[in-house]
Design brief:
With about 170 residues, the protein is mostly helical. The protein is about 60% helix and about 5% strand. The chain has a single domain, classed as GroEL-like equatorial domain (GROEL, domain 1), CATH 1.10.560.10. It comes from Lodderomyces elongisporus (strain ATCC 11503 / CBS 2605 / JCM 1781 / NBRC 1676 / NRRL YB-4239).
Length: about 170
């Protein structure tokens, strides 16, 4: 009975899936999860009404809450749910944004692979972009804690006379 099975299948009736198909399914799963939370992004994001198996209703626009209430089966989708949960634990905000960014990065990487760019090259490019983004944030957008609030005294000479009173 087992001798007729192909050597590249683990179980009878199993199906061999190529790398291209797996990659496409992974990107599709990530896009599906991202599409669920996309409309809840931002200050004017829409609320989602979720009903669980026993009929409890949850209305929220928080990405982490939405994703935690979903039963995501695909491993790529589960990774995005875990990403949102980790973002919520560590930062407390930005859960929808990280899911949307991760899904978009996967989609763009998939397009590059379909255009015959090797995945290692794509990963190297993403790592280089990460280093550049961190450098830009540190050099351009960051401000020393020691200088926070001090420039407000130079904004208005009228407030300068009150500086000694408040500090």
């Amino acid at each position: 009975m087992f001798t007729t099975a192909r050597p590249d299948t683990l179980f009878l009736g199993a199906q061999k899936v190529s790398g291209d198909d797996v990659r496409t399914q992974t990107v599709l799963a990530a896009q599906t999860v991202a599409n669920v939370v996309k409309s809840s992004l931002g200050p004017v994001g829409l609320d989602k009404m979720l009903v669980d198996d026993i009929g409890d209703v949850t209305v929220t626009n928080d990405g982490a809450t939405i994703l935690s209430l979903l039963d995501v089966q695909h491993p790529a989708g589960q990774i995005l749910v875990e990403l949102a949960q980790q973002q919520d634990r560590e930062v407390g905000d930005g859960t929808t944004s990280v899911v949307l960014i991760a899904a978009e990065l996967l989609k763009r990487a998939h397009e590059l692979v379909r255009n015959k760019i090797h995945p290692t090259t794509i990963i190297s490019g993403y790592r280089l972009a990460l280093k550049e983004a961190i450098r830009y944030i540190n050099q351009t957008l960051s401000q020393s804690v020691d200088t926070l609030g001090k420039e407000t005294w130079s904004i208005s000479p009228r407030l300068q006379c009150l500086k000694d009173h408040w500090i």
